[in-house]
Amino acid sequence: MPEYTIFLGADHRGFEKKNELAKLLVDCHPGMVKVEDLGAFEYVEDDDFNDPAIAVAKAVRGSENSFGALVCASAHGVCMQANRLKGARAINSLTPESAKLGREDDFANIVCLSADQLSVDQMEQIVKTFCHTRPKTEERYARRMRRLDDEVKE
Predict the structure, then answer these.
(1) Per-residue model confidence (pLDDT) at position 105
(2) Is the pTM of this model over 0.90?
(3) Residues 81-105, buried b or exposed e (16+ Cβ, 10 A)?
(4) Residues forming beta bridges with residue 10, ordered by sequence position
(5) How far apart are CA 11 and CA 131, in angstroms?
């Protein structure tokens, strides 16, 4: 049984890099990490970032053993869309250090990656750091995380 699952999603601008990233992540810990691609499944030049962001956000919310990684041109659109769903806590990250802080301090469960600014190797390092970082356990961090969903609608 996998230790955790990584749900991947991308629009047309992140499509190729998402596919390359999936191959790297599948091979990183065989049997321990499950990688599930939630789309896009084919290159469609005028698709919307909303669909993969919603699919990934729905897949990860409420599960401590899953993470999301979304790829689009800037990573802003997928990040904004994912954060509109209760239980999804998406961050935009350009470095492993930023991803680590987002997990530790903010209980992020989705990392959003810029296809225009990051190489696939950089994305791999960011996702691995994100998935291997545990949130801080002090009550103040847990309290802040709970408050994130206070005003969010389903």
Answers:
(1) 94
(2) yes
(3) bbbebeebbbbbbeebebbbebbee
(4) 71
(5) 22
